[in-house]
């Protein structure tokens, strides 16, 4: 599963890099299908990050990884 997630995230990252941004996988829960992500670079804290999540990131990831049931973001991670 992690391989599929990473491949899908790599596809998303290509677009985000055009704006000097990025996205990191924070956690994945096989049981609930919850994916936790953190925007990085210029995407972190951007006023349009919620739109990017809903209209871009979620569309690509859910299409490529049907096991995803919920995606949420966190401000920062270690």
Question: If you had to describe this structure to a student in words, what would you say it looks like?
Answer:
This protein has 78 residues and is α+β, with helices and mostly antiparallel strands. The chain is built from two helices and three strands, in the order αββαβ. The protein has a three-stranded mixed sheet, with helices on one face. A hairpin with a 4-residue loop joins strand 1 and strand 2. Helix 1 runs antiparallel to helix 2.
Features:
single chain; 78 residues; three-stranded mixed sheet; globular
Q: Any idea what the shape is?
A: globular
How many separate helices?
2
Strand content: 25-35%
> If you average the pLDDT, what whole number results?
93
Low-confidence stretches: none
**Biggest sheet: strand arrangement:** 1-2-3
Q: Please outline the major beta sheet.
A: 3 strands, mixed
Q: How are helices and strands ordered from N to C?
A: HEEHE
Q: Which structural category do the helix and sheet elements fall into? A: alpha+beta
Rounded to an integer, what's the Rg over CA atoms? Answer: 11 Å
Helix content: 40-55%
Number of strands: 3
* Euclidean distance between termini CA atoms: 22 Å
Quick recap:
By secondary structure, the protein is of the alpha+beta class. It has 2 helices and 3 strands, in the order αββαβ.
List the helices and strands and how they pair.
Blueprint: H1 2-17, E1 21-29, E2 34-41, H2 49-64, E3 70-73
Parallel strand pairs: 2-3
Antiparallel strand pairs: 1-2
Helix pairs in contact: 1-2
């Amino acid at each position: 599963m992690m391989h599929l997630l990473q491949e899908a995230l790599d596809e998303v990252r290509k677009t985000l890099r055009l704006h000097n941004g990025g996205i990191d996988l924070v956690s994945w829960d096989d049981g609930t299908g919850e994916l936790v992500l953190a925007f990085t670079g210029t995407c972190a804290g951007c006023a349009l990050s919620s739109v990017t999540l809903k209209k871009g990131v979620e569309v690509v990831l859910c299409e490529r990884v049907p096991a995803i049931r919920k995606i949420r973001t966190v401000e920062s991670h270690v």
